[in-house]
User: What shape does this take?
Amino acid sequence: MEAKELIARRIARELPDGALVNLGIGLPTLVSQYLPPGLDISFQTENGLIGVEPLPEEGAEDEYLSDAGGRFIGAVPGAASFDSCFSFGLIRGGHLDVTVLGGLQVDERGQLANWMVPGRMIPGMGGAMDLATGARRVIVAMTHAARGEAKIVRRCTLPLTSLRRVDLVVTDMAVIQPTAHGLELRERAPGVSVEAIVAATEARLIVGAQVPEMALAG
Amino acid sequence: MHKMIALEAAAALIPDGASLLIGGFMGIGTPHRLVGELVRQGRRNLTIIANDTARPGLGIGRLIDAGAVARLVTSHIGTNPLTQQQVLAGAIALELCPQGTLAERIRAAGSGLGGVLTPTGLGTTVAQGKRTLEIDGTAWLLDLPLSADFALVAAHRADYRCNLDYAMTARNFNPVMAMAGRTVIAEAAEIVPVGVIPPDAVITPGALVDHLVRRDAGHGS
Assistant: This one.
């Protein structure tokens, strides 16, 4: 299974019935493809909609309806549209149950950096800072390492997205829960050993006696 | 009062060096005709306040293509490599602002408020140079209002009184910007008789709109 699919399938199990959820651009968007059947989950897109439906059939695109990445989407029956102030009121005001965000680095304090690499890449934060600060639960979806470089680090070297401690980090190797005491290793990907995870992680991990394999949705 | 105006005349109101709030999110809900006419008339040295600069050839990206922008306040430029190039080359002075804060700064300007107290960005690089206030034990970042000489907004429909409504995610920053431009120019896909947009469905009251142009049918991107 591809790394991205594995991460998306694991995170799909984190979304509770009835939740209002915002999925970041890129890898997090995949999560909606793997929802367990029977759940009623509403997806928000910060450019102004609750009730995102995945890409419409070719030719069915609505020129007035896109996701935050500018890709055409559909709207489910019962969707609601609103302006940017209202949309971020939802996000900052504690009305959003879960956000899933991509990541460049997460550190031992559970802080996330995901919006710029000084001197190399200046995409900007878009809605990420508001989402990381305001959502009730923040889940980070990212590969465990990039080009051999650890992304789970002692201390973020890239500019932070928020001081807030994220709630869960899901990678292609592990599920890690940041706590007041540090990063607790909760689960490992199928076939991946605790030793391999520790070796690919710069941060100190708190490892319990039992680290079960991830269960995946779909 | 008759507010309909020819496209050329609307763009001609805007001088070189003007500051513009421009609606739209990745080109969805951007006043494409007004943007295109500013490019055609060769406007220069503009300050643009907008969520993003879309892509080269699309929406606000056309102003970037034309080298018309000197200063940019935005939340995201990752989708437009030309914007990034011009920023790195020093041709555009860039201020990145979290998207929710950007919306609220514009709202504050249009609503007569002195600023926004937000938790977003506290302790990060976007807090540099800003005041942090502690109120009853909680820290907040103070972000200041953001207005402009003009607001260029894209509506779905306008009636003859310039009441506006919007479609789906094309609404985005448009209603809040219509409050914060000293002169407001709206571009509507359709112009309809008074009453077609019921009072309860008006999002931007016509009293806020100074000038109205019509967007050509099929001029979607």
